[in-house]
């Protein structure tokens, strides 16, 4: 058996990370500082994020609770690190099945399988506030990632979770949900967003 070259800079947290706050809402409540969410068109949202490596332990431990806090407050069901200005392949997700927290930390997530069958659902994005559109994607997705303890995990998702995971991994590659629409629809949404952001700025008098 050879050495897996992917392991040379695998995310490997110190032991303390595995017993520190995971970013569940219990420990990311009001005590955790929230982060500013970047709004399109911000160039950071268009950059390809870099893999989380062995040296990113402290950064990830700091960032994850803040990302959960930011996501729950928004509220949203997912948040990718580039949306809060960090170009790392890291995202958090919580669909709150039956209203109960179910936080997922995705480190270096990869799509390892997509169904041929497609599904269309309405998507929104915290980086395009107030904008929604029907997006067609593979109905089911198999994702490989590491959790916050560095353990390799796989999820086979369908429904909203499948869409959300694909949406978050898109963010890590600089892709936004509007990129899955026609140019006409994308331009309409980007112009409407710019107008609404301008309006909001003018209302506050900045
Ligand atoms: O809150 C969100 N809702 C959502 C709905 C359908 C498909 C994807 C999403 S993710 C989004 C939060 C977000 O912007 N994540 O990057
Ligand atoms: Ni988004």
Characteristic terms for this protein:
disordered N terminus, Peptide Deformylase, 206 residues, binds nickel (II) ion, five-stranded antiparallel β-sheet, alpha+beta
Question: What count of helical segments does DSSP give?
Answer: 4
CATH architecture: Alpha-Beta Complex
End-to-end Cα distance, whole Å, is 62 Å
Please state roughly what percent of the residues sit in beta strands, choosing from under 5%, 5-15%, 15-25%, 25-35%, 35-45% or over 45%: 15-25%
Walk me through this protein's architecture.
- This protein is of the alpha+beta class.
- The protein has one domain (8-205): Peptide deformylase (Peptide Deformylase, Alpha-Beta Complex).
- It is 28% helix and 21% strand.
- The chain has four helices and seven strands, in the order ααβββββββαα.
- The protein has helices at 15-19, 57-73, 159-172, 183-204, and strands spanning 78-80, 90-93, 104-114, 118-124, 132-138, 141-146, 152-157.
- A five-stranded antiparallel β-sheet has the order 1-2-3-6-7. A two-stranded antiparallel sheet has the order 4-5.
- The longest helix is centred in the C-terminal third of the chain and has 22 residues, at 183-204.
- The radius of gyration is 17 Å and the shape is globular.
- Ligand GNR binds next to strand 1, strand 4 and helix 3.
């Amino acid at each position: 058996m050879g050495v897996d070259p992917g392991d040379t800079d695998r995310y490997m947290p110190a032991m303390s990370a595995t017993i520190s706050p995971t970013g569940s809402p219990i420990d990311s409540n009001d005590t955790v500082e929230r982060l500013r969410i970047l709004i399109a068109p911000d160039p950071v949202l268009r950059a390809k994020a870099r893999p989380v490596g062995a040296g990113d332990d402290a950064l990830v431990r700091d960032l994850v609770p803040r990302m959960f806090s930011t996501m729950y407050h928004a509220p949203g069901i997912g948040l990718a690190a580039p949306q809060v200005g960090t170009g790392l392949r890291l995202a958090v997700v919580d669909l709150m099945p039956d209203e109960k927290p179910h936080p997922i930390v995705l480190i270096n997530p990869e799509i390892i399988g997509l169904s041929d069958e497609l599904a269309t659902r309405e998507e929104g994005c915290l980086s395009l506030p107030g904008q929604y559109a029907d997006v067609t994607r593979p109905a089911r997705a198999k994702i490989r990632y590491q959790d916050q303890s560095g353990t390799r995990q796989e999820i086979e998702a369908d429904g909203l979770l499948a869409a959300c995971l694909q949406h978050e991994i898109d963010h890590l590659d600089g892709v936004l949900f509007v990129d899955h629409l026609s140019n006409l629809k994308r331009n309409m949404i980007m112009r409407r967003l710019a107008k609404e952001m301008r309006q909001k700025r003018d209302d506050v008098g900045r």
